[in-house]
Amino acid sequence: MRQKRVPMRMCTGCGEMKPKRELVRVVKAPDVKDENGNVIQAGEISLDLSGRKPGRGAYVCKSVECLKAARKARRFEKAFSCKIPDEVYDRMEEEIQP
What we know:
Layout: E1 8-10, E2 17-19, E3 23-28, E4 32-33, E5 39-41, E6 45-48, E7 56-61, H1 64-72, H2 75-80, H3 86-96
Antiparallel strand pairs: 1-2, 3-6, 3-7, 4-5
């Protein structure tokens, strides 16, 4: 019997390829738009511990060091193409800490 393939993802902090289950997904929810297609509200950025929230995702290790490295290099801002406030990073650090 063939073994099942393990999905691999790259950590935005350290850049290592790891199994998807070992990483935490950071998601940017879809923007809210009006009937003309104008953006009313930008999507919220949050941790997706279940891995099922809709939106654009990026992955980071379950360590604060990797989150800080991604924050310093602005890798989430590049992945989501938007500015991320410091409060969002602080909230993510609190959620990741054991």
